[in-house]
Request: fold
Amino acid sequence: MPPSIITLTTDFGRDSPYAAAMKGVILGVNPAAVLVDLTHEIPPQDLRATSYFLTATLRYFHREVIHVVVVDPGVGTERALLYVEVNQHRLLVPDNGSWTELSQEAAPRPKVIALAENQYWRPTVSRTFHGRDILAPVAGHLSLGLDPELLGKPLQKWVNFQLPVAQVGEDGVAGEVVSVDGFGNLVTNIPSQLLQRCPPDEFAVFVGGCLVRRFAATYGAVEPGVVMALVSSTGFLEIAVNQGSAARELHAGVGTPVALKPVRLA
Amino acid sequence: MPPSIITLTTDFGRDSPYAAAMKGVILGVNPAAVLVDLTHEIPPQDLRATSYFLTATLRYFHREVIHVVVVDPGVGTERALLYVEVNQHRLLVPDNGSWTELSQEAAPRPKVIALAENQYWRPTVSRTFHGRDILAPVAGHLSLGLDPELLGKPLQKWVNFQLPVAQVGEDGVAGEVVSVDGFGNLVTNIPSQLLQRCPPDEFAVFVGGCLVRRFAATYGAVEPGVVMALVSSTGFLEIAVNQGSAARELHAGVGTPVALKPVRLA
Amino acid sequence: MPPSIITLTTDFGRDSPYAAAMKGVILGVNPAAVLVDLTHEIPPQDLRATSYFLTATLRYFHREVIHVVVVDPGVGTERALLYVEVNQHRLLVPDNGSWTELSQEAAPRPKVIALAENQYWRPTVSRTFHGRDILAPVAGHLSLGLDPELLGKPLQKWVNFQLPVAQVGEDGVAGEVVSVDGFGNLVTNIPSQLLQRCPPDEFAVFVGGCLVRRFAATYGAVEPGVVMALVSSTGFLEIAVNQGSAARELHAGVGTPVALKPVRLA
Reply:
């Protein structure tokens, strides 16, 4: 039997006792669970960043893994807590749209259960920390083989939010920065396939008001300090600076418009 | 047999080779040990923060777990290193009071052993890193089943420091902020039971000089930006701002006085 | 059989999906692999810091452990990816010198293989993330017992960079700060053995322009706030301030010259 892997993705911050408490609860239910920290540094309560993070990481995990996601500004309110099977991934997550992007790619339709059976929860449930009191023990039980059907009733509707989608027009493509990594690389929502319509000798990339003329295959293909456009490791248009930070260089961040526009070579 | 779980709590910082070295030493003694990072981001040498962190997390772990705690400003001096059993938790910790809060709740009295048997240590012990050279290998041996009695002699006295306790008076309750979490929520030392003596229509919360009139069950129960008092997930009075930071909003931090005082509804 | 321990050392940052993706890939190849985070906080693309970090940590791990190191400014260029056996440690690392310091101590000569056999890689290899697409799956296969010889051909030459070595002259020793830890302690490249030639009553330590007269056995041996020289936990001259930060106090950082010079006791 493969070990029972449970990952954790939260916005608690690295100095927080909250993630530690969740680990204790999970290991209390299943001492043989294998815990894997994905991140505890989602920007506080940032559901869109959570959605991007999950899309960029979950595809690399095999399907038996259980992913516990706690970015939960609505904790203690009426919002449901969900067990989700989407694209063969298994999530425990508040119903707040933080898995929106995963759900949009889903085929077949996601299977969603609203957690209701409190015999799988901690005996006392606080109003402000359902990650510890509900999601963590449920993850422990699932990792021991509990049938998810026993957790509650199937749900047909759940929260989704609108994600910015790159727009293709007659004169190019308009998208935006959806993520800035630790190097200052700007990952956009423009799929690399769209780049093929825009040959580098006829199109240029605009990040905010800045023109990026150079296309490259990888960072080290240009001189240090040069701004370039390239295909990100997840298959999207990315703007980077070799040995530097595109975010700093171009004063750009999440939400900065990025466009591919035809240029006249003067 | 359940796996041998060993947790780590330090002030080394996330970029430090010190925690990594400890992991290597533990796994060298017991390659099957399961390592769980609680945090490496205790503020440097902050024993009170350590004490708070341990109290907020250890209660969620089951008793076989071994907790290694290295916040150790006195490393290499005469201070002892301890094996502790307190409230069914097992700790390895310098004798500097960093488990004060746990010891105060203890029933029965904690069992404490001063580490003395150096056959369970690394062959060479540095003067500046006993976490790596003494606590890590001892944790490895304990996780293999070593009887703690073999580590050294029982100790009857150990270091404790004075923790601020909320004071109940005729006109309310006086406490202080003991922890600020990553969201800027202010956790106080005022137990939620005391709130029952102070009905919300007759009492208000003062954080420093700021009046907090709103009581809520959870963050999302008030409008975004509103300051509220609520019961923390560990059972204490907490001050929070829905989708905001109470620490920033109220210019408050660890040590800021928090009081429940009667208010005249004008 | 001991578990298959795989450590991760990267410059991705703690909020990055990149380390999480690598964990998914490794566990996809070997679900029983035991992942250990060493750090994800190497300063971006800092090969010298990587080299120092590996030297300060790998010596504490036993030899079966596989260490994956991804600080890779040259990703996607011609630079090779290496399997390395050095001082009984096993590394997967880009050929960029980030293990320079380990290689210099090596006896016997390191065994190095250039990764070439792509049946052990992910089916699709991006140009910008070989850690995920090549090193992670190879680590998974090695942890399952794959013979490293099958990964590619032996290499006789690899990248090394010049590390600053402490110079011994007639009037003392000249070195520099090679690392600053989370406490602000300055670790130098001056081996503690050289201190024996420089008795404390005849020599003093200069950090940049600042004189450090006090030698101590450990931090707590001097009063709070006092600057001292001592032997680091890895056996080098270190400058520290009891309950303070030597980096801040002396305005020093990586590269700051540190010298032992004879002083005339006036």
